[in-house]
Amino acid sequence: MNYVFTDTHCHFDFPPFTGYEDESLRLAAQAGVQRIIVPAVTAERFALVLQLAQEHAPVFAALGLHPLYIAQHHEAQLEQLVNVLANPPAKLVAVGEIGLDLYMENPQFDRQQALLKQQLALAKRHDLPVILHSRRSHDQLAAILRRAAVTRCGVVHGFAGSLAQAQAFIRLGYYIGVGGTISYERAQKTRSVMAQLPLASLLLETDAPDMPLAGYQGQPNRPERAAEVFQALCGLRPESPDEIAHHLHQNTQSLFALLSNMGN
């Protein structure tokens, strides 16, 4: 059976896709990846991400201020996000990529947390889900999400934490993003977590051009490889591929409401 997938996390506004968007989307579609959600990482990329969504039917936009670029985010950048969300384009489906990161040098963690809380409040005000980045910060993130009570919740993308941490996010109503990490035999902890979580809580993603799958080390990741992440997930789960594909599709629709945002 031919399945239809959504890459729920692809940085399509970066090389190697820049200037090759049509070809990249064609390759993705050939693999069954019919839709791509592109999360912005800085305010200066908002316009490009929105333009990609406007010009390409399979592309949907998310706008947010990523914690890795905390030094670039100030009141003016947050105000840009406020202004766009005040009159959101039709294909804007989430606030993201936002979150916390304690792996980076000089994390400015107080500023990260303050910015995250402001963006969660915006998501709640505009009834949008959030796309969350978290490295070495799952417990702190869960505590903030618990207090923020975002209406539509969201997804913790590229998850590589423990089963207990994943279950804590799920109890709060959040989905867990499944990426190429599970294609590596050595990633036993993450593979075990993804094998045990409820299918109703999983989303498919690549994080392209980052997080290359096993066998593609040193190459940019690509959205069509979401189909290979799906195959890797099927190898870890007891359910049939049909059931897994069905849940992934339903989860994506439930969170992002993409069908109601198909117009340009």
From TrEMBL:
Signal peptide: none annotated. Keywords: Hydrolase, Metal-binding. One of its GO terms (cellular component) is cytosol. Pfam families: TatD_DNase. A divalent metal cation 1 binds at residues 9, 11, 97, 207. One of its GO terms (molecular function) is hydrolase activity, acting on ester bonds. A divalent metal cation 2 binds at residues 133, 157. CDD domains: TatD_DNAse (cd01310). InterPro entries: Metal_Hydrolase (IPR032466), TatD-like (IPR001130). Belongs to the metallo-dependent hydrolases superfamily. TatD-type hydrolase family. This is Deoxyribonuclease YjjV. It comes from Chania multitudinisentens RB-25.
